[in-house]
Amino acid sequence: MKVSDERSADPASAEMLEHISGRAVQTAWDRHEAQQPQCGFGQLGICCRICTMGPCRIDPFGGEPSMGVCGADADIIAARNLIRMIASGASAHSDHGRDVAHTLLEASRSEESDYQVNDEIKLRALAMELDVPTEGRELREIARDVAEICFAQFGRQEGELTFAARAPRDQRDRWHRAGVMPRGVDREIVEIMHRTHIGVDNDPVNLILQGVRAALADGWGGSMIATDLSDVLFRTPEWITSRANLGVLDPNAVNLIVHGHEPTLSEMILAATQKKDLIELAKSKGATGINLGGICCTANEILMRHGIPIAGNFLQQELAIATGAVEAMIVDVQCIMPALGKLIDLKDYHTKLISTSPKAKFPFAEHIEFDESRAMEIAVRIVRQAVENFPNRDKDKVHIPEQSNPLVAGFTAENVFTALGGRYRPSYRPLNDAIISGRIRGVAGVVGCNNPKVRHDYGHVEMTKELIANDVLVAVTGCTAVADAKAGLLCPEAALEYAGEGLQEICRAVGIPPVLHLGSCVDNSRILMVLTNMVAEGGLGESIADLPVAGAAPEWMSEKAVSIGFYVVASGVYTVLGEPLPVQGSRVVTDFVTKGMEGLFGGKFAFESDPIKAARLMMDHIDRKRQALHLPGPMYEVPYVPRTKAEVKAAG
Least crowded by CB within 10 Å, which of 31, 99, 270, 638? Predict the structure, then answer.
């Protein structure tokens, strides 16, 4: 196997890695290799830099030093480090939600705003839920009140986070008993930072419970607000077709890539690319038009609502520039490598890197700060720069892989009702009945990032294939969704090729893929609502913890993923991580997250790097939940097929 194939399971990425091999271009894989061996103390979570008496590290084998200078042992240090990761991850997703709430609030104040309410039905549903009066009021007045209530969730100091009331009562009772019901988003994050200051909270379990509280404030607060208010502003997604992979770049058009996470920017860039004067300008420069694509979660946002094709996921951001065909990469926040600017500074590529957020500036990038009050004006300026850069493209350096696969996206907690029950009698009943009968074994959420420690996309794709082959319906978001799209798993035809007989029957009857794309990484809140709706439909228990469901993040790497993992587990879902949490230097913390959390919340973590073995852990858990509900076994039992050499040898 070539080194490029060892690094990525995606053929387009492997082709690009081969194409740039031997050049001065460095990628994340090269930098990961240069970092070997990585710090073992850090991987185990037992090094501490919280004060300047250190940094301190603990002997993982029980020798000296067994404590830091202040007396903190491995359990305290691992717990503090872990929940600081949650604080950062929760703040990233929740800040996204805060920005969307701010945009809706500004839009409600002026008829001249470039942003308007595009989903009146969703707005009115939120208004009803939040007790906002609607009778005889203008839409902008309703939007203002909804935005202000959502905005207030961030600074709330007492009581309970409003959207936490959406969770099943049994799950909320678990949060109350554990003392982790979130009050306000910012309060829980700040309290983590206070508790982890030297000399404050030194009980590892108590520390982790505050981490859980902040994670719940993210999942049932900041992220949920981001999803719901984005739907109000830009409309709730509906089923839509598109394509994914580097082959969506057009060798004859001006190519723009939006990369990051905030739809307030990407929506305006999209609108600007459709302006006739800019299209005519592109043609005057020798291009056939303007082609927009996306990377990471801003790609998922505009895919879900407009069908804009996806150029790639996290580890493809450098490879997109290396095609030599991208006129501008426009970035906002999160998952944007600082290496992009250095790549452009090599002068091998003409791409303009344009940063737009006051929160995120990058080396060698041009900064054009985005302002919602002048959104279209700024978007037009950015697109114009990209168009004017087209003549600087060196055609001899252009190398665009041909690979791109069709996909269906746009699934939400709302339109799953319609998908399953029809337009006139929308219902989750068909899904619950299919699970109860055993036609569908259960449901799995597979989410998360890419990580150069893992063969790119391999974990996502192989895990998903194993699950759907065993009649598990899979919901995906973020970089997982992009990986599965590139592998052809997000189109209805995939059911015929990869799904088990029971799941195949459902997919054929309803016309859906066996893998449902639910959006960006903040849209994991959509998965929470799907599970909540399954409980409300009845027949599968009283809590999310009772459902035959499981979660996984086979290639996770970010602090956001830690926050997501904790709010999913605390919501009652067994979750398998491909890369262990950095806590294994502490037996107390490891035991609590892999065992103790289940008694409190119904969910727990497991660590397994092999995606096939991880999928089997998930299916074993799903089967145990089926047994606890006194459900029959899967209607079409599919025996596990040995996949590794060791398994094949053991099987004779």
Answer: 31
